[in-house]
Structures are given as structure tokens and as C-alpha cells.
Design brief:
There is one protein chain. The protein is of the alpha/beta class and about 425 residues long. The chain is built from 8 helices and 27 strands. Strands 1, 2, 3, 4, 5, 6 and 19 form a 7-stranded mixed β-sheet that branches. The radius of gyration is 22 Å and the shape is globular. About 45% of the residues are buried. The model has no long low-confidence stretch (mean pLDDT about 95).
């Protein structure tokens, strides 16, 4: 069994950034385990631009963004193994199956979970009808078009307005397909505003909010779908059903963090994100196990994934070199309230945190002309004006170490949306 100081599970954007920062923080004995045949993860099939504006101050495609990190990874001589599937983690012993080496085990001092996320399948939607050819997840269609050079169809309906679905509406249009509409169950879009404008509005593709697919027409090949308006309880409204002819249905109905490994090893999972519960160091409920990127919670931008993963890499390096620090202070719970669904992390401890801690969160609905407020107990300490807040756009607040230390007796930090 090989001994490794830091093992990173996943070689996508999170794993790459975490490994680079761990190396820069002084850990030389580290290893990335990646199940695919290439580093870069999902970025390899994202050939559109819009990546890197925060990290590199320029627009890059997905492969270009990943390439920047892969180039730095190789310059730092960080080892990685491809075609290596991790099947179990127990007591920091990582068991994997490798195409080249077969069954392998590694003993780690610290582990960074960076497995990313996957798309929600059709089976979770309970759409009645046969299962004809022509129904794909948006990510699968993206890979077929961008990597395999295969067009799934010519008349397209998209269910769900997640970012991948919005981007594929534009991509399919550019390849000559007719995108009839995007139907969204919720009364608001699940994607970024810029993607609605650039991928739908610019191409005249209608977005039907509070609509869903209620039926499938076709046995061997999809011939069309039935869509209906839904009420406030998200139930189809009688008499609103309409038929849309199409040969392709793309599903963009949410992403799920890949946390089977995390659950099997006993890491506490946050039900609202389906990712691990972490503290300010991105450490999970198990000491020396860290999580970052879309395996922790689904992000809007890959730049935020890289930033968060870099923090996880530094935290893991600190743990390997110095162990878990003794703290005089206590873990302070972060309480989502009044419009805030969850926060990542869930707790902060000023004695362990860097000079600042970035807290990310999502709202439970659409709010306009409002404030994102933070309370240290009863005292409001942050008051940020927001023109619009939606669940599709992640919010963030930066807490300062000096402010936490100055707040004597602080036992909770409350986050809430307050409208004017």
C-alpha cells in the first residue's frame, strides 16, 4: 500500500485547482485519481466561451480554461493517474480500480473530494409514455454534438432551464436544428440571466415558465411531446395541454453532486445541497477529509469552483503539515433564514479560518429591490443592496476573521433577505 500525503479524487476543475494549491502550500507527496481518460472533467465538452472572467480576466472556452490548469499542474510535476476509478474510501484508505494497474490501494493523510456532479435522469421526472429514441440529458447531447460530432435531432424541445439546457438551445440552433421552446416547471429560470439573454433571447427561442412535459408521443422514435401549464403546487392545470411536434427532447432538470463515495464513508450530507456538510476550512464531518466544487454544492461558474477548490487544497496542506489546530474559539453556526435556503459552509471558527471566509448561498425564490443582510446575533453587520436575487444565481458574502474575533460571545450568524 502506497502512502500519499494528499489524495484528490477527481481531475476536473476542482481537483486540478485543489492539487495546485496544495502543492504551492508545501505538499510534494500528492496524487490525483481521475476515472476518465483525460484531465479536465466536464470542461472538455464545453466548447462555448464565458469561462475564466474572474480567474484570468478574459473569456475562454472550457477546454482552454482546463488547459491553463493542466499546464500549471504539469509544470509543478504533480502526479495523476487516469482511467482510475475510486470504489471505496475507509479510514483514509483509498481503494481504486485502474485499467493499467488493476486493484490498487493508497493510504492518505488527507483526502480532497472533487468528484463533481451528474445530471438528474428522466426516471426522476415520472413523465408518462413510452421510452422512444430521441430523449437525452442536455449534457449527453452536448457531448454528442461537441465531442462525437453527432446531431441528436432536428426539431428540439428542452425541458428545464438549467445552464446546460440553455447553452444547448443555442448550440443546437447553430448546428441547424429548430429549438421549438424551453419549458420550465418553476416560475423562474434555473440558469444565469446572461445565458437566458445570449442563448434564448438572441435566437428568438421562447421560454415558457410554469410549464412541464406531461406526455411523450412516439414508441420507436419521439414524434412529439405534450406540455401543460402548472399551478402553484406544480401540478398540471386541466385544459392547458398542448402538443409540440419534435424528434428530440433534451432534459436539463438539475444536477446532483456525486456523493455515493462520501455517503459510504460516513460523511454527513446536507439534504438541501446533497453535498457534504463542511466548516470554514471545507473540512467535512470526518477529520482530514475535505470537499470542494460541484460535489459540495452545484456552482454557477467554474471560476468559483476553482477558487473554492484552491481553499480546500490549502486547508488539506495545512492539516498534513500541522494537524488539526487547537482552537480557543467555538464553531459558530451559520443560520439561513427568511429567503435563504442554505449556506456553504455551515459553520465557521475564527481560530481556523484564513483572513476571510467566503460564504455562498442560494435564495428560495425571486426577490427584487431587496437587501442581503447578515446578523451577528441581534446586530446587523452586513447590509448589501440587490436589485434581483433568484435561485439560479448563487450569492456570496465575505466574513472577516477580525470581525468574528471582535464579536465577543457570538453564538450564531444569521443570513436573511429583507425587501424594501
Amino acid at each position: 500500500m502506497e502512502n500519499i500525503d494528499v489524495i484528490i479524487i477527481g481531475g476536473g476543475p476542482a481537483g486540478l485547482a485543489a492539487a495546485i494549491e496544495a502543492k504551492k502550500a508545501g505538499v510534494d507527496n500528492l496524487l490525483i485519481l481521475e476515472r476518465d481518460s483525460d484531465l479536465g472533467g466536464i470542461l472538455n465538452q464545453c466548447i462555448h466561451n464565458g469561462f475564466g472572467l474572474h480567474t484570468f480576466q478574459e473569456e475562454l472556452t472550457g477546454p482552454e480554461y482546463a488547459g491553463r490548469f493542466i499546464k500549471e499542474l504539469k509544470a509543478l510535476q504533480i502526479p495523476y493517474k487516469l482511467n482510475t476509478m475510486v470504489i471505496e474510501i475507509k479510514d483514509k484508505i483509498v481503494t481504486a480500480v485502474s485499467r493499467q494497474e488493476g486493484y490498487v490501494e493508497y493510504k492518505a493523510k488527507a483526502i480532497i473530494l472533487a468528484m463533481g456532479c451528474r445530471e438528474r435522469p428522466r426516471g426522476a421526472l415520472n413523465i408518462p409514455g413510452f421510452r422512444p429514441a430521441g430523449i437525452y440529458s442536455a449534457g449527453t447531447a452536448q457531448r454528442l454534438v461537441n465531442i462525437e460530432g453527432f446531431m441528436p435531432g432536428r426539431e428540439v424541445v428542452i425541458l428545464g432551464s438549467g445552464d446546460i439546457g440553455l447553452i444547448m438551445a443555442r448550440r443546437m440552433t447553430l448546428e441547424g436544428a429548430k429549438v421549438k421552446l424551453v419549458a420550465e416547471l418553476m416560475p423562474y429560470s434555473g440558469g444565469l440571466k446572461r445565458n437566458i439573454v445570449q442563448c434564448l433571447d438572441d435566437y428568438g427561442i421562447p421560454l415558457k415558465l410554469s410549464h412541464t412535459v406531461t406526455g411523450i408521443d412516439g414508441k420507436d422514435r419521439l414524434r412529439g411531446v405534450f406540455i401543460s401549464r402548472v399551478d402553484e403546487a406544480r401540478k398540471p392545470i386541466a385544459g392547458t395541454e398542448e402538443y409540440i411536434s419534435c424528434d428530440t427532447l433534451l432534459l436539463s432538470v438539475g444536477l446532483i453532486p456525486e456523493n455515493e463515495l462520501s455517503q459510504d464513508m460516513g460523511v454527513e450530507i446536507e439534504p438541501l445541497t446533497s453535498g457534504p456538510v463542511v466548516n470554514e476550512s471545507l473540512e467535512t464531518s470526518q477529520e482530514g477529509i475535505y470537499a470542494c466544487g460541484n460535489v459540495l454544492h452545484v456552482h454557477d461558474l467554474v471560476d468559483y469552483v476553482s477558487e473554492e477548490a484552491g481553499h480546500a487544497g490549502r486547508s488539506a496542506a495545512q492539516y498534513v503539515k500541522n494537524g488539526r489546530p487547537e482552537t480557543a474559539g467555538k464553531d459558530i453556526p451559520l443560520i439561513p433564514s427568511d429567503g435563504i435556503r442554505y449556506t456553504v459552509p455551515r459553520t465557521v471558527n475564527a481560530d481556523r479560518m484564513e483572513e476571510t471566509a467566503v460564504i455562498r448561498m442560494r435564495t428560495d425564490g425571486v426577490y427584487k429591490n431587496c437587501y442581503l443582510n447578515v446578523y451577528f446575533g441581534a446586530d446587523r453587520v452586513i447590509h448589501k443592496k440587490r436589485m434581483v436575487m433568484t435561485p439560479g444565481e448563487m450569492e456570496e458574502i465575505t466574513l472577516k476573521k477580525q470581525d468574528l474575533k471582535a464579536a465577543a460571545g457570538l453564538d450564531r450568524i444569521i443570513f436573511r433577505v429583507e425587501e424594501q
